[in-house]
Write a structure and sequence with these properties.
The chain is an alpha+beta fold. It has 29 helices and eleven strands.
Amino acid sequence: MFCYFCALRKNNKTTYHPSHNSNRWPDIEFHTLRYNNIMQQKTSSKFWLRFLFTVLTIFFIPALFGILNKTGCFILFWQNDDLSAIQYESGYAYYARIPNENAVKLDLPIYLIEDNVLIDTPVLAVNQDLVKDIKEIGKGLYQLLPNNNIIFSSIDHSDPASGVHAYSVLSPVVIRMRYLLPVLAIVLLLMMTAGLMGLAAKIRKDVVSLQCFKSCLKNFAGFISILILLMLVLPWKSFFVPPVFPLTKSFWIMPLIQRNAVMFLLLGFSVLYLYYSKRKSKWIALLMGLILVINLAYYFIPERDYYGVRTDSAEYIQSYHAGSIRTPGYPRFVEDVMTLFSGSDLDYWRSEEGLKDLARREELLFKDHSGDSRGLVQIVRAQKAVLGLCFLIATVLLCFLIPPHFVFLFGEFVLANQFLGVYNNYVMSEVISQAALLLSCGIFCFLVGKRMKWSFPFLGFFCGISIIIRPSNMFILGLLLLAAILLFVQDRKKALLPILAGIGICGFFILIPAVNIFRQYHQVIFMPNQGYAAIGQTLAVMDETDLSLPKDEVAREFLTASFQQIQAMKSEGKALTQNDYVFHIALEQAKKLGFDPVTANVLFDRVSRDLVSVHKTELLAAYRDQLQLGLERTRLSLPRLPYSYLLAVFIVISLFRCSRYSLTGFVLISLHNLHLMISIMNQPERRYIWSTEIFFLMGAALIVYNVFRSEQHQTHRVRHNSQ
């Protein structure tokens, strides 16, 4: 009957009424047949749409893998190519041309094989010249050269060109384009066919077919997006490579995913689609968190047995006391780790013999063999564990401000580009400092997102811990100040007690060194090395006319002796660094005058004040040169996009659609730049500059989310936070 009335209305026919003198009824059977034909056509259209998208998915997956392989992202098969025409370089070094040029162009991992036995990839130390070590040390070291060559040495120092050993290189198989083009053509044809069917349904106003097309397209995009996410479960380094390889030229070992620009572009589109589609967001967030945890394990596993010491590591291993120039954060961490784990020998490293042993190991990297590190490798592992845990906690806290999709992108970018930690294999190399700063920034983002007043004391606690670990982390107090202002403006009376508690906790940790120094020396010295940076800069620009500037006789004597030592070192042709001016000149002369490393700060402050007033222009020029040097060492610059331009881009983007997300991102970016200026004025070393680059990326993630955020998501989050 429904078909009957629809047919009457469509043909503008009058309905039947008993008063009509017509015995002519509409042909019900005809309209019923027409309705059945229409429904059958729609059912057939739905079937073919589903079948088409199923076939498209089947062909799209190998096409996707092929494109990723062609761009160097996806590695499934490996090939073993013999090295021929091996030529002698110098020392123990030989070089040969790599047959697989595509792997070299795409910067893919390549391994050297001697007699079908894999040679371990060298793990480089800080400032290590691997080519020099290959020539002078040998022992199976190798390095890839940009001209498709590999320079290497044999394990037993034999001549590789003599044919005593067989050498080959293991490199990924890069698919040829002629094998990929047919699959791409089929995928393109299927996509065009599906698009034409959807367009035809829209023109015919076929609601059923159009809804089926949209549903199939949505399922297809969701499946591909989740597939790209699942591909990130694969590592980017081969941890499970067998030591002995078959004699075949091509074989399968372990699929790898290289996190390059193409992979991140696809990942960005996938995450944005999953964010806007709002399908099973809780399960997607759980999957992203699991992938991030797995990738964090991949980040630390490969070099878990390596350890090294820096030039100042001995100062952190020594026990803390009031006369130490270091704050108690690092020494306390070392004591706790070596007390907790067996196989550690803290007394040995604090003895005279242990200090000499540390001096011999400076700037080098070692692999622990059955506990010969005497606990140093345990310290490095504990650092990595603490850093990884703090990173995970910070990402979870960041999810209270922005959706997990953008937090996941931030975490994957940080891990893929090695922004987490600084020289992670070295004892006390800004790793613990970055961990404490990460927790501080995470709690600040949580406070901005949830406006929970009693999270402020936790922020004060970790800000204080950050400063007690490294005094130059004083810039983190900016977060504490902004959080206090935010809470006070929101609720003055109820927020007053948490604010006072947080400030008190932070002040307690900050004043620990000052209290210990005052109890022993009865002098007010805020930090045990507060005057070291200034004296190093001023001694570098002083001249002979400045020797009479100090009014104090002790200061004049110190300045005269320092000037004479500087001239003597320069006459020997030595290039003086900031550490030379501070530790080898200023501190030595202060000790000769009866000062110790802590009380020397008073002398340094008096001398530097007199010199700064005279050499302002020279100091500004020196700071300008150090700023340029620091910007050259940052990892946030690109070949065609310097850091200054990148900073300007994010600042401009943060001004559009201004919100608490963009302002929070701007604050985090400003924190990194503030720390960059502090590091440049002190020592523009890479480990100081790199330690806070992760906060620039965190701020960039907030700004990017502010650009792409959906108002529907925002309304839901506001309701959730209000509840």
